[in-house]
Inverse folding.
């Protein structure tokens, strides 16, 4: 054990300053106290007095909140039944929990609104196509993501419109948008916002950085105006003012007006997100591309945007999360989105019980949470990959 | 003694003695009379009020290798960047390969196709593999078929001695390897002129040599080169002429041997004494 150090022992005064290693240092495992579960607990939960107090307070808080929640949501919940009777408190069950039977009974309505039952396969197909496109784009190793982008941003919008709205010529009866509702509409509004906002946002971001003053001014005005107004105002403006701008015979339907409002709003925000990504690109990338003879548009398309958008994915997804939650506001311009169908369903006298509303809102919260949390996890995953330097 | 005026490019000197491995001048008849690779006349450039380049006159013959040196901020990079129009200039004329540089976008693109540039910080495209970095411009700018562009690129990657890295991404390579990829990338456009802006100054010392060796090999092939560098050994070995710049002006131009042995201008003497000690 003392062999290596002994070998380096100085023999003369001058050699005391010099050192030459004669044997490699042995690999030794870390001292016990710094590894293992106990050490981890001590380090993370009770490192000092204030942190220990904090840990205790949080544990007490959890004990206070979690068990009643579990009681309500699961233990005392009603899972089956065909009307309000099932969810009322009775002698043998004095406390009634969540009325999941209500959600089960109205589930189709919450998903499809008043969309004709015979045509609901069209909505299902739309969901499937959307899921497929989303997966193609989000999975960074997927083959031919450029085709995926074409599918998502060009093919999908057209086919979705044909599917959902209908097209008599190919035998799909038209379904009036007034019948659309529920989760379908929420997804349609969010998807339109997502699909439209990225390309328009990119154009606006480029416009704002343009060297042409007129283009720059227009882009800046649009972005700043929309960003300076609440979404609900944009929605009202779209639904009241849009008919003024198009021929009367068109009379754009209510849903379309709301979609235009959402698209304008999300584009302005997306423009700022993309602009931040463009700003982060080193000047050297432009210079190298130009020095090779690539034109402005080639440089953007092949060098700048692929990199800028990849590093911006977390921020893009974050604004999609915000957009997804904002879709609930279309309810104010008379659209039956998911939240609105919950509102309608909970007022149904067939299911009027003290717990119906709570159940409905808990369900709504769960659905929104699952969607947003999934997006958030994705963004975090990408962020981690980017920060470990794995860039593609 | 001071301003170099507009020196006619001298016929390139025969190999000089005393420097070990020397590079013979490009074998070509009557280069001096031929159209120059680059001809800069009365060039002035301002950044706002700041006069970065003042009355620059320089003629680079075909096959000629010129090393530009000078203190930091003297305008060396700006001069190179004017030649491929990464920077605009306000007065004077630059003719590259017989084409006068104007604001016309097509003219600028045509000139950029003829002029390769290697940067201090490599500026490789991190989202593309080494091979894709090299084939991008030939495919997109010259419309070369992909297969042919790849063969072409592999040829140059072999010449810079890293064909085995073709499938990797730039950030998986060392600095020296990245710079060699950058050289290969520029060569893939088959440029008539290669410009290097301090290609080794961002490299760790042990990687400088591999990049310089690549550049020497390029010089041996007769490439016209404009090199901004502080590697004086390289300058002695490779340059036909050395241009010394200070405060935006060309102070002195000479062949390497006399340039180092008997600098004329006071500023040159001072500069050389500082870097050569
Ligand atoms: N875009 C710009 N705007 C304003 N001033 C600039 C700009 N680019 C360069 N300069 C200035 O012009 C001068 C010359 O710059 P340049 O980069 O050409 O010098 P250099 O000789 O290459 O120096 P170095 O050896 O440090 O690279 C410097 O004073 C620099 O600060
Ligand atoms: Mg420089």
């Amino acid at each position: 054990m003392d062999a290596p150090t002994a070998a380096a022992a100085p023999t003369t005064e001058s050699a005391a300053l010099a050192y030459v290693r004669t044997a490699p240092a042995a690999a030794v495992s870390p001292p016990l106290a710094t590894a293992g579960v106990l050490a981890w607990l001590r380090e993370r939960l009770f490192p000092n007095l204030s942190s220990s107090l904090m840990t205790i307070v949080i544990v007490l808080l959890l004990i206070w909140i979690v068990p009643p929640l579990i009681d309500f949501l699961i233990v005392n919940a009603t899972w089956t039944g065909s009307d309000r009777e099932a969810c009322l408190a009775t002698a043998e069950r004095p406390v009634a929990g969540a009325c999941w039977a209500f959600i089960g009974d109205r589930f189709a309505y919450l998903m499809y609104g008043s969309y004709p039952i015979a045509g609901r396969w069209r909505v299902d197909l739309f969901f499937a196509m959307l899921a497929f496109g989303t997966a193609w784009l989000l999975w960074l190793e997927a083959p031919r993501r450029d085709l995926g982008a074409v599918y998502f941003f060009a093919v999908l919008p057209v086919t979705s419109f044909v599917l959902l709205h209908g097209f008599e010529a190919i035998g799909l009866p038209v379904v009036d948008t007034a019948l659309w509702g529920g989760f379908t509409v929420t997804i349609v509004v969010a998807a339109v916002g997502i699909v439209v906002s990225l390309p328009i946002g990119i154009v606006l971001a480029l416009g704002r950085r343009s060297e042409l003053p007129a283009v720059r001014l227009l882009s800046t005005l649009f972005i700043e105006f929309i960003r300076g107004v609440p979404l609900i105002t944009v929605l009202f403006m779209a639904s009241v003012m849009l008919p003024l701008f198009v021929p009367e015979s068109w009379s754009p339907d209510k849903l379309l007006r709301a979609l235009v409002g959402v698209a304008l709003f999300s584009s302005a925000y997306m423009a700022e997100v993309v602009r931040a990504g463009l700003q982060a690109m080193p000047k050297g990338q432009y210079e190298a591309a130009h020095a090779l003879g690539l034109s402005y548009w080639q440089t953007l398309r092949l060098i700048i945007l692929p990199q800028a958008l990849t590093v911006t994915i977390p921020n893009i997804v974050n604004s999609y999360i915000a957009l997804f939650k904002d879709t609930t506001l279309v309810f104010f311009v008379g659209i039956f989105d998911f939240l609105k169908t919950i509102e309608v369903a909970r007022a149904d006298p067939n299911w009027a019980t003290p717990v119906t509303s709570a159940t409905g809102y808990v369900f709504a919260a769960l659905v929104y949470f699952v969607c947003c949390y999934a997006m958030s996890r994705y963004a975090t995953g990408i962020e981690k990959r980017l920060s470990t330097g794995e860039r593609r | 003694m001071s301003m170099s005026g507009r020196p006619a490019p001298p016929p390139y000197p025969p190999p000089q003695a005393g420097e070990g491995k020397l590079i013979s001048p490009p074998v070509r008849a009557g280069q001096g009379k031929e159209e120059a690779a680059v001809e800069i006349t009365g060039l002035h450039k301002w950044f706002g009020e700041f006069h970065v380049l003042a009355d620059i006159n320089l003629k680079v013959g075909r096959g000629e290798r010129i090393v530009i040196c000078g203190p930091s901020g003297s305008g060396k990079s700006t001069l190179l960047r004017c030649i491929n129009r990464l920077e605009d200039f306000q007065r004077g004329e630059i003719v590259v390969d017989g084409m006068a540089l104007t604001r016309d976008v097509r003219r600028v693109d045509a000139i950029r196709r003829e002029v390769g540039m290697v940067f201090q910080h490599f500026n490789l495209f991190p989202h593309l593999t080494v091979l894709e970095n090299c084939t991008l411009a030939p495919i997109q700018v010259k419309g070369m078929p992909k297969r042919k562009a790849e063969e072409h690129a592999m040829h140059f990657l072999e010449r810079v001695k890293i064909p085995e890295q073709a499938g990797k991404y730039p950030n998986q390579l060392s600095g020296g390897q990245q710079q060699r990829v950058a050289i290969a990338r520029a060569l893939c456009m088959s440029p008539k002129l290669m410009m290097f802006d301090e290609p080794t100054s961002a490299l760790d010392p042990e990687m400088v040599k591999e990049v310089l060796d690549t550049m020497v090999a390029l010089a041996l092939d007769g490439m016209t080169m404009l090199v901004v560098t502080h590697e004086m050994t390289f300058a002695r070995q490779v340059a036909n002429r050395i241009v010394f710049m200070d405060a935006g002006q060309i102070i002195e131009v000479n062949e390497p041997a006399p340039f180092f042995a008997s600098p004329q201008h006071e500023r040159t003497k001072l500069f050389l004494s500082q870097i050569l000690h």
